[in-house]
Amino acid sequence: MLRYLAKRVLMALIIIYIVLTLSFFMVRLMPGNPMAALEAQLRQQGGLTDQEIQQRVAAVYGVLPNAPVLTQYKDYLVNILHGNLGVPITNPGTTVVAVISQALPWTILVVGVSLIISFIIGVAIGSAMASFPDSAFSKIMTFVVSFLSAVPNYLIAILLIYVLTATYQVFPSGGAYGVDARPGLNGPYLVSVLYHAVLPVFASVVTSFGGWALAMKGSAVSVLGAEYVRAAESRGLSERVISRSYVGRNSMLPMVTQLALSIGFMFGGSFFIEYYFQYPGIGYYMIQSVNNRDYSLMMGCFLLITVSVVVTNLLVDLLYPLVDPRIINPAARRRADAPGPDSGTDDATTLPVGGTVA
Amino acid sequence: MRFVSDLWRILRADKGALVGGVIVAIYCLVAIFGPVFVKVSNDQDANNAYLPPSWTHPLGTDSLGQGVMSQIIVGARPIMIVGVLAAIITIFIGVLLGLLSGYAGGLTDSVIMRITDVFLTVPGLPLIIVLAAVIHTTNPFILACILSITAWAGLARAIRSQALSLRSSDFVEAAKLQGVSMGNMVGRQLLPNVGPYVAIHFLLAITGAIYAEVGLFLLGVAPIAGTNWGIMINLAMSQGALYTTDSAFYLFSPMAAIVILQVAFVFFSRALDSVFNPRLRVQ
């Protein structure tokens, strides 16, 4: 058990370290890198001594550009350990950490709500499809679900904006709450927050519940064919007990794992939604910073997204033995891992578009 | 030819897959031959802006008076090239590492799988956006490399687990006893047996790459140069197509082009799946 924990924690730390290093080299050492560009820009403006330029750059990135690379690297890691990600180039009055911590709650709200809704809808539809494979409902749903999981979410977002905010102004076109709402625990503010979250949540639910439904159907179908289900049937257990305790529980297990894993991944999947609905979350700020060439803010957002994914994965790994004790028992794990003749073919059909990249 | 006749039989029975396959074929033809026949003219005439569909401009015109239809046709090639290139890179790396790791085992396996774990854990889309923003390339090959930066990892994992089960099969044992080389073992013995899975993953990798690629152009992260569907939507949005009623064709045509292609790929891949998985056909 302890070995399992230590291995997982070590792996997560190594991945975080690799990502930090990668982003250091990306921003500082690539030809035409952002730091050299900022230096050149300041030099072009004129009126600044070399010393001042160095200090300006250092204020943004937290390291001196003409220091040896290893010193820069050390300074960078020390800064990050102190929670200092530098200053946004376009808005020097604040810090990257402050911008991110302001944006984070909105992303968590929209991502969390849409994840839960699409999970519930998807699992319900998927299990219905598995229980009545020959019904008209199942056939129609197979089509609808394959169709929707193939449609890119940004196109749904554009369509919604076109119809519901530009043509018929039913919903607001941006922001997380109205200008007249005063932040705090009051009715109008909460209503305004929900009102502004409706479209972003809807857009991501429409494009993601299909993936859940297909995954749930696949999982349930594979459990339905299992021998313990046949055994339960031949023992004369009632339909309800079988579907709840035998099929339901076992087919939910991989879904719950998947749900936990996607909490991290959804941070990265909300770019388009936040960008088009001008919803002030992490993804929105990251795209803004890319378009403004504000690389310190961009890397800050990137680091936050990556680290949160790694940490969620770690938490799932740590909690999973509670759900499935086979994981930490090496002999049992080998049995569970042993690939069947058709392993690996199942996820190909359930993979949603974008699932390969997000 | 077994494959072709099987495919045809499945396609005939599954109308959705047939339509999907035909649409994918049409898109490929348009991408290859379209730019030969259709040119986006350089003359810009504001008087022709936002024309409704007509005989000369079947989908109307954009804000500069250029035909939307011809832009869609010309824009197919860059999208398809990058999508297919990215899928080829993904498949190549994923299959190579997966087979190597699964067959060789031992230290090679551990090293490759740890690297794969890193790429599986790092979220793909943010990494793609950051890389595309810093590199800022117009080269289709480099763009394809960026798009496949993490996509290969999942495939490598799946291929590895198949290679693990193949390793203990009789024909691999026989080949091993004959003392074949590593290249022969991976290329001639293992590869043909994971082919079906690879083919389906290839189609899905194309859709994934097109999704991310168009997204990069929509966000303005990739350089806006030339004509493709993502750039068309980006320009339409930035020219306020949301707020002028005449520009609906201009905004929605490229969107429709993308949706039709993506859906067609998914339905076609379903047919391919049942050709290669006789088990599914029975169900």
Counted by DSSP, the helix tally of chain B is 12
Helical content class of chain A: over 70%
Please give the alpha-carbon distance between the first and last residues of chain B.
Answer: 24 Å
The fraction of residues assigned to DSSP E strands of chain B is under 5%
The 3D shape of chain A can be described as globular
Query: Stretches of chain A where pLDDT falls below 50 for ≥5 residues?
Result: 338-358
Kindly name the structural category of chain B. Answer: mainly alpha
Round the mean pLDDT of chain B to the nearest integer and report it. Answer: 80
Shape of chain B: elongated
**Low-confidence runs of at least 5 consecutive residues of chain B:** none
- How many separate domains make up the residues of chain B? 1
How many helix segments of chain A? Answer: 15
CATH architecture assignment name of chain B: Orthogonal Bundle
- Please write the string of helix (H) and strand (E) elements of chain B: HHHHHHHHHHHH
Question: Radius of gyration of chain B over alpha carbons?
Answer: 22 Å
Give the oligomer, counting copies of the same chain as homo and different chains as hetero: heterodimer
The number of distinct β-strands of chain A equals: 0
Q: What is the typical, i.e. mean, pLDDT of chain A?
A: 76
Subcellular location (chain A): Cell membrane
Pfam families (chain A): BPD_transp_1 (PF00528), BPD_transp_1_N (PF19300)
Protein name (chain A): Peptide ABC transporter permease
Family (chain A): Belongs to the binding-protein-dependent transport system permease family.
